Amino acid sequence: xxxxxxxxxxxxxxxxxxxxxxxxxxxxxxxxxxxxxxxxxxxxxxxxxxxxxxxxxxxxxxxxxxxxxxxxxxxxxxxxxxxxxxxxxxxxxxxxxxxxxxxxxxxxxxxxxxxxxxxxxxxxxxxxxxxxxxxxxxxxxxxxxxxxxxxxxxxxxxxxxxxxxxxxxxxxxxxxxxxxxxxxxxxxxxxxxx
Length: 194
What we know:
0% strand, 2 domains, transmembrane, single chain, mainly alpha
């Protein structure tokens, strides 16, 4: 409760991560949790996955690798912005099935925004539209347990095997893409996002 109150009161001033680390430190020092509990029950792989994805995203942006990848993608699929955006939609869906969807967004979003703005079509395809597209694509993850917490929960129940998730998830993913490209983009056009 104290950590929550500190987040609300001074979290913006000193940083949310500092408050979180302070709360963690207080739990260890007060012996509410032991180091053995932390080692055994902490999802270290998940922490490293997020950290690695955010670091990769930062490195891609800082080294201009984003521009290199962007130019390569445009050279491969052409300069039609709609085709490029659909390519990014499919790319983020595939990557989100292999790693956490939040981590996939952290990696793909900078590349997508640089690519679309580099085409000179920012007036018709603004950065917000690209961000929404990538976020929606990362939510269309149904094939593997690693993609979203809901898929992991279903898989961990023991009633479903990975092959069952892949079969049903493939159908759901294709349907999601079709619904999004027809109804979703039409709705965005209607309300003025696009």
